[in-house]
Design a protein that fits this description.
Elements (H helix, E strand, L loop, with lengths): L4 E2 L2 H4 L13 E6 L4 E2 L2 E2 L6 H16 L16 H9 L3 H26 L9 E5 L6 H16 L5 E4 L4 H7 L7 H4 L4 E7 L4 E7 L15 E8 L8 H21 L4 E9 L2 E2 L5 E3 L16 H8 L2 E2 L2 E2 L1 E6 H7 L10 E7 L3 E8 L6
Parallel strand pairs: 5-6, 5-16, 7-10, 10-15
Antiparallel strand pairs: 1-2, 2-17, 3-4, 7-8, 8-9, 11-12, 13-14, 16-17
Length: about 375
């Protein structure tokens, strides 16, 4: 992850800039913050890879006594569904092995959460939404629940909840909350992109029927159609990755127009790193396909707008923000009852952002 992001004059001024900290329904205190302890970045203790390290360690312990209920498959190659199946299966040793990894991971995740809660803007946090790929598994859900129990045992009063939407969808749905209500008026959908170190996903987000006049709730927003490109296997250059993304968007735009979805000429993007007001990436994009996404001469929103200048006869508007922020924003309709909340996304790394709801989010 890059360095932390806190408000600057440009980005705190309003919602119509990339990486804005003043959004229609809430303010962003900070995101992508780096918290260290003696071993390094604490976020490195709570990743998908760390959970598998815990699982592998217990496999080694069992092998020393001649038992490995999982078999010969390497821990790194185990699909999430197979790990979850072990939890539900009849083999008690296999289930206990996975439970042990969950317990070890939860102990460290509780330490990580406690460290975040000591940071300036995180004081008084009422709820933490946990997203990312690890959340979309039974072992991930159990780890989240166990972590909350461990925090309660330490008298740390904060609720941990899994992100409501599938993390893949949340990374797209959150983009609707980057846009002010007037930009959505008269439209039924927008386009969204979620860029990661292994995948690029693009989709059409159906806005649904707003249940509030200010349209900041958007409870029924859902992914209508999406495409995914697992670019890690292809190892593309940056230019090839951008060309492929643009092709995905053009295909989705054609589909949405054919189905008369009345799409807004809006494209929201979630991308790792610290996002500047002009759409450039200050830091944190080192794992993106092809590298060099932080170049002074590269700007993804500008490249997309140049390739797609109009949508449905209207000038295209592209807005980009940090991917953990965007995934967190998908949770806005379910956060009316709190004021200060946060998101942690457990994936290849640990994404983070902290939010303060505006008063109108409680009406």
């Amino acid at each position: 992850m890059g360095t932390s992001k806190t408000a600057t004059q440009d980005q705190a001024a309003g919602p119509l800039t990339n990486g804005a900290l003043d959004l229609p329904a809430l303010n962003i205190d900070d995101y992508n913050i780096e918290v260290r302890d003696r071993q390094g970045f604490i976020g490195d203790k709570a990743t998908k890879g760390k959970f598998r390290e815990k699982l592998h360690r217990w496999r080694k312990v069992m092998r020393e006594v001649g038992i490995d209920p999982i078999g010969k498959v390497a821990t790194a190659d185990l699909p999430k569904r197979d790990i979850d199946a072990l939890l539900k299966g009849k083999d008690a040793q296999a289930a206990a092995l996975v439970w042990s990894a969950i317990e070890d991971f939860s102990q460290e995740f509780a330490d990580v959460v406690a460290c975040f809660l000591k940071q300036k803007h995180w004081a008084g946090t009422e709820r933490i939404v946990v997203g990312g790929g690890f959340r979309q598994s039974r072992s991930g859900e159990l780890a989240i629940a166990r972590t909350e129990m461990l925090l309660a045992e330490r008298d740390v009063n904060v609720h941990l909840v899994p992100v409501v939407h599938h993390p893949d969808d949340a990374g797209l749905i959150g983009s609707v909350h980057l846009m002010p209500a007037w930009m959505l008026k008269g439209h039924k959908a927008i386009f969204a992109v979620d860029i990661g170190g292994t995948n690029i996903r693009a989709g059409v987000v159906d806005l649904g029927k707003a249940k509030s006049d200010d349209k900041h709730y958007l409870e029924e927003a859902a992914v209508w159609q999406s495409e995914i490109w697992r670019h890690s296997a292809d190892r593309p250059s940056r230019s090839v990755a951008v060309e492929r993304l643009i092709a995905m968007l053009k295909d989705l735009i054609a589909r949405a127009e054919k189905e008369k979805l009345a799409p807004a000429p809006l494209i929201g993007i979630g991308c790792p790193g610290i996002i500047q007001a002009d759409g450039s990436i200050e830091r944190g994009g080192q794992n993106l396909p092809g590298g060099n996404w932080e170049s002074d001469i590269f700007n993804l929103p500008a490249a997309i707008k140049k390739a797609i200048p109009e949508i449905d006869g209207h000038e295209t508007f592209v807005m980009m923000h940090n991917d953990a922020v965007v995934q967190g924003l998908s949770q806005i309709p379910f956060m009316h009852d709190v004021s200060k909340w946060a998101v942690l996304t457990i994936g290849t790394g640990l994404g983070n952002a902290h939010f303060v709801n505006k008063a109108k989010a409680h009406t």
